[in-house]
Amino acid sequence: MQSTKYGEVLVLIDWDNLFICLQERFGAEMRLENRIQALIEWIKSDIGEIWREWGFVFAPDYLTIIHRDIFVRNNLRLMICPKKQIGEMQMDTVDETLIWFGEAMLNHPEIGFICLVSGDADYVKFLEKAKKAGVKIALAPPTINSLSRDLVGYANINPKTGKKIILRLDTLFERSNM
After folding, report:
1. Rounded to an integer, what distance in angstroms lies between the CA atom of residue 86 and that of residue 3?
2. 14-31 per-position pLDDT tens digit
3. What span, in angstroms and rounded, lies between the C-alpha atoms of 10 and 166?
4. pTM, full prediction
5. Which helix (H) or strand (E) holds 52?
6. Distances (CA, A) of 62 to 11, 67, 68
7. Class of domain 8-176
């Protein structure tokens, strides 16, 4: 395992975004665990060592029950994001919880890179803060349609390829013949 010169990689997964986008694209054939394993291998080979060997999954409770075994087998730490009641409506807290945790980790001395597994534009301000803190950024959106154009500019350039460090999870098996 190689570590980047910038520090270790903090992996932040918006499970709601990941699961819903891949299910819309592939249905039951989404090969979810295989994609997670390929993502982890990509991070280790192309970016660097994953911080403390853990990735962090932010998910609403109803999705965690279904996928808990995948998290455990792949060394992913679960952060349950319960719905909050606002009047008559229940609001999702995945994005705000992931942002809160990510911002708290920006000044950790071992963190030099963030791999955000989402394409949601709600993360723009968080990525701005990460850039200002000197933390490098990789993006792993589930699909091309889920990747907000607003996020693309925050991905760092891979010095080996000269391209943005972005891995679309819907293309993993096309590229690697897995």
Report:
1. 43
2. 999 999 999 999 998 899
3. 15
4. 0.91
5. strand 50-59
6. 22, 9, 11
7. alpha beta
